[in-house]
């Protein structure tokens, strides 16, 4: 009992037979749960992230690997021009597929079976979850039958059911956790540390975000196990174990460095930002704790506290008290997890010091599965008091279910787990109140427990997926339609646009194309938009500085940059593709050249004013002075020159900018006629109902004509109406500005939204170019949520049409870099300059880009807040830009060191024993 539940039980495992039984049960449950999908032609691909991220990146990366296997000398590209404005491959894909061992199996499937491969590998992950559990359960002393029972509890817990269709790669840490605990268990027993090192390595390269959680979880496990096994003997004894665990961990970490170091570097320089610790919460809202109790056994989640555990847990909980010795350390570690669930601070710590989200809750079913296995091992050893306590526990949860239904409408499915647990209880009563049971009756009881457990888990899954329950199948694509949906993104309109060669340009969108995310990766086109967890922080800085309303932390540049003409030109957007109903949102100067006639007709618009991919600028404005401009003036300046940091760049031979940018601020009157909106005074308005609007009437309407018009809201703060004393009021809302034929909205996400929260105290709305304006036309500003809105200032800007604009564009084209090579990782070109200048590009800035001019190394500089620039002297310049993922070689060197240490560990240290 010292090292586990029963050390002798390890010898009683017929492992092959157990795995065969597990495989049979697994397949039966998969058929029971997912046959509805197959019969109705429904895929596992979620219409949101599943379609735009998970399947697309899996398919794209598999194709990259296949191409590498066909042409290994070509290598794997480190930079991808179809990912947003261009992005590092390892940093972008590292969160999803780079280190995922299952993703590499995609190379064995032909092109036409890639969607099947995606589904097959999801189910293979699920299968491996239970397999990993079995090996761990065997080590800590469960019997084979108990291990099998617990494996089903763990494998089909709601966290798994949720992420089969939501985030498939979230399943992988559920494989690694029991293996890490198994490796730690071996070290605690003075056995080899090899397994621990290898699982640290593979989990670190698989996903750094979950690796962080796994690290904390396994060391929590180690501490609980150490003190349970040994108590406190001495600091020396404890230090010996801690030291061995740490150096083993470091070796695994070093082995992963070739992937992990570049990814961490990318994360630290990404568009992510540190949010307030624990979302500013000291405790969760009361609703969280109520929902946590309700969700214990039904498939639901709140702030990523994912429960929906097997209902056999109801019977286990009282045994933690009456039969504590049976369960060894499990009550202690589950108590630690309970405390962690109760306080937002722990959620934040586990989430990388960010919002208080409990994505780590996948760990709880592992230890509940072990406890369930232990109960199953003792299913014929229960006393009357044990059975009474089980009945009492059932009664409590039944009362909770009844009260919950009285308080709020809830599906009857909440009673199903209790009924299944009650069935198990009755079987256990029958098995333990008779003086003796025949072998046949014991088999019937054992089978009955398995069947009731399976029924419970299948009902939970059906409730989550099926139309009779939460109907999440409605959020999934039909099977076999993903590739066709990608291909029909623009109804084939993109086919009239030439492919990028040495004439480099980008494809753009309009502000209304909100659903276009990573589609251009699939279509192999250079564009602007991307939707990934790790994106370039310098591009995000540019987007924020220009106050793009479309900006999100994981989508820094998207949707045509709010249809702002100059920014589209700056980024080289020569063509815009959009549905025909969005024609009014085309920036001025983009002319329609093609329309499709399909079911969802699209148009292609072209401009001759897009700036070259790289061109020389002799006129500059310092970053400090640029930041003093209003956002429309910043737009205007970028048509004149380049923004550089005077502290980092020699500007002595450049021309400082000193012209008037021509941006006008237009006076207006505020009109409030909406009965659902009150003015409170001191620049505050209160929305009483669902929406509240007010109007702005420009005093001289003629100033709106022949100009691009913007509305700027500053000093925004929203205070929601408190309508529910239990629930926390959401702080999200949408502000909308309408004028003429254009209607623009900007969303302020909730403080506890997982990956999109950023506080917007400013909002800039581009209402487009206005040629003629109705004298009675007014701006209508609408806030969609009830509550109090503070608003310090409203400004209407007009940027009149610049008669010299085409001449500026022509000058840029005259001074462009004449490209001779344009590849993923290499760009070459020539340029002739009479004066020193800054070569200005639309390449997202990053340390990976290196430059030579006329064969000599030249330091790249950051221009226009977020892009690569190169100082040029007068005369002829042959420019070469090459890209290598930052810290890739450093990571490789660390991996070699890790490999040497691993070899040394295997040779000298693996048999080393820890003694008192």
From TrEMBL:
Q: Which PANTHER family match?
A: INTEGRAL MEMBRANE PROTEIN, INTEGRAL MEMBRANE PROTEIN-RELATED
Question: Which species does the entry assign this protein to?
Answer: Pisciglobus halotolerans
Transmembrane in keyword set: yes
The source's superkingdom equals: Bacteria
Q: Which Pfam families match?
A: YfhO
Q: What is the lineage of its organism?
A: Bacteria, Bacillati, Bacillota, Bacilli, Lactobacillales
Q: What is the protein's given name?
A: Uncharacterized membrane protein YfhO
Which spans are transmembrane here? 19-39, 116-135, 142-162, 196-224, 244-265, 303-322, 329-351, 357-375, 387-403, 415-433, 445-466, 887-904
Asked if the keyword Transmembrane helix belongs to this entry, the reply reads yes
């Amino acid at each position: 009992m010292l090292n586990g539940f029963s050390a002798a039980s390890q010898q009683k495992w017929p492992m092959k037979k157990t795995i065969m039984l597990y495989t049979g049960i697994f397949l039966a449950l998969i058929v029971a749960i997912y046959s509805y999908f197959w019969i109705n032609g429904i895929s596992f691909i979620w219409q949101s992230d599943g379609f735009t991220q998970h399947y697309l990146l899996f398919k794209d990366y598999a194709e990259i690997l296949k191409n590498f296997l066909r042409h290994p000398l070509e290598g794997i590209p480190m930079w991808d021009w179809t990912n947003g404005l261009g992005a590092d491959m390892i940093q972008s894909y590292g969160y999803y597929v780079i280190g995922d061992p299952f993703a590499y199996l995609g190379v064995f499937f032909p092109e036409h079976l890639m969607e099947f491969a995606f589904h097959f590998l999801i189910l293979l992950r699920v299968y491996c979850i239970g397999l990993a559990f079995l090996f761990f359960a065997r080590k800590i002393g469960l019997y084979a039958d108990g291990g099998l029972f617990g494996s089903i509890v763990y494998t089909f817990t709601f966290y798994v059911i949720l992420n089969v269709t939501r985030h498939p790669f979230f399943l992988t840490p559920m494989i690694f956790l029991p293996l890490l605990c198994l490796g730690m268990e071996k070290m605690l027993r003075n056995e080899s540390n090899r397994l621990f090192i290898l699982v640290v390595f593979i989990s670190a390269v698989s996903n750094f975000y979950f690796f962080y959680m796994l690290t904390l979880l396994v060391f929590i496990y180690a501490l609980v196990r150490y003190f349970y096994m040994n108590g406190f003997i001495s600091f020396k004894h404890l230090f010996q174990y801690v030291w061995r665990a740490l150096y083993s961990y470091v070796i695994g970490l070093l082995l992963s460095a070739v992937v992990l170091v570049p990814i961490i570097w990318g994360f630290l320089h990404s568009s992510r930002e540190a949010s307030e610790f624990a979302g500013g919460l000291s405790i969760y809202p009361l609703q969280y704790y109520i929902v946590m109790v309700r969700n214990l056994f039904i498939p639901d989640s709140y702030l990523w506290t994912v429960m929906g555990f097997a209902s056999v847990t109801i019977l286990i909980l009282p045994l933690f008290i009456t039969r504590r010795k049976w369960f060894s350390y499990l009550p202690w570690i589950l108590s630690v997890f309970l405390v962690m669930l109760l306080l937002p601070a722990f959620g934040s710590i586990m989430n990388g010091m960010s919002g208080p989200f409990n994505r780590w809750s996948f760990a709880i079913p592992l230890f509940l599965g072990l406890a369930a296995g232990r109960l199953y091992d003792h299913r014929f050893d229960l006393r009357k008091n044990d059975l009474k306590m089980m009945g009492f526990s059932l009664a409590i949860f039944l009362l909770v279910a009844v009260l919950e239904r009285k308080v709020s409408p809830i599906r009857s499915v909440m009673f199903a787990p209790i009924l299944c647990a009650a069935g198990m209880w009755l079987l256990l009563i029958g098995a333990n109140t008779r003086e003796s049971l025949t072998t046949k009756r014991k088999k019937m009881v054992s089978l009955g427990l398995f069947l009731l457990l399976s029924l419970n888990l299948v009902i939970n899954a059906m409730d989550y997926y099926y139309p009779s329950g939460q109907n999440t199948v409605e959020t999934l694509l039909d099977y076999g339609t993903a590739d066709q949906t990608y291909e029909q993104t623009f109804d084939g309109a993109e086919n009239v646009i030439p492919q990028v060669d040495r004439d480099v340009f980008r494809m753009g969108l309009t502000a209304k194309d909100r659903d276009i995310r990573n589609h251009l990766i699939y279509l192999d086109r250079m564009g602007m938009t991307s939707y990934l967890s790790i994106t370039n922080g310098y591009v995000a800085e540019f987007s924020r500085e220009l106050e793009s309303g479309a900006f999100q932390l994981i989508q820094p540049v998207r949707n045509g940059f709010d249809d702002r003409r100059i920014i589209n030109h700056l980024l080289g957007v020569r063509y815009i593709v959009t549905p025909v109903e969005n024609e009014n949102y085309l920036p001025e100067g983009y002319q329609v050249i093609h329309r499709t006639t399909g079911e969802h007709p699209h148009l292609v618009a072209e401009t001759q004013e897009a700036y070259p991919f790289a061109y020389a600028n002799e006129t500059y404005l310092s970053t400090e002075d640029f930041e003093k401009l209003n956002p429309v003036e910043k737009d205007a300046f970028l048509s004149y020159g380049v923004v550089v940091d005077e502290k980092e760049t020699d500007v002595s031979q450049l021309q400082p900018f000193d012209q008037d940018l021509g941006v006008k601020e237009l006076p207006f009157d505020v009109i409030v006629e909406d009965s659902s909106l009150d003015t409170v005074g001191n620049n505050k308005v209160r929305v009483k109902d669902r929406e509240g609007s007010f109007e702005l009437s420009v005093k001289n309407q003629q100033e709106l004509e022949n100009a691009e018009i913007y509305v700027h809201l500053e000093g925004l703060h929203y205070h929601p109406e408190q309508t529910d004393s239990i629930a926390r009021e959401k702080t999200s809302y949408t502000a909308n500005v309408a004028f003429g034929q254009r209607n623009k909205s900007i969303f302020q996400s909730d403080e506890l939204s997982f990956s999109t929260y950023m506080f917007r105290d400013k909002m800039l709305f581009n209402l487009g170019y206005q040629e003629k304006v109705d004298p009675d036309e007014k701006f209508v500003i609408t806030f969609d949520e009830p509550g109090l809105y503070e608003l310090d200032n409203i400004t209407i800007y007009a940027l009149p049409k610049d008669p010299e604009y085409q001449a500026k564009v022509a000058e840029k084209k005259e001074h462009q870099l004449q490209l001779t090579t344009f590849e993923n990782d290499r760009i070459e070109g020539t340029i002739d300059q009479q004066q020193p200048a800054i070569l200005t590009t639309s390449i997202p800035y990053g340390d990976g880009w290196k430059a030579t001019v006329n064969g000599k190394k030249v330091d790249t500089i950051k221009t226009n807040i977020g892009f690569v620039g190169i100082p040029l002297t007068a005369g002829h310049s042959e420019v070469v830009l090459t890209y290598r993922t930052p810290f890739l070689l450093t990571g490789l060197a660390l991996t070699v060191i890790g490999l040497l240490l691993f070899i040394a560990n295997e040779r000298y240290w693996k048999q080393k024993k820890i003694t008192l």
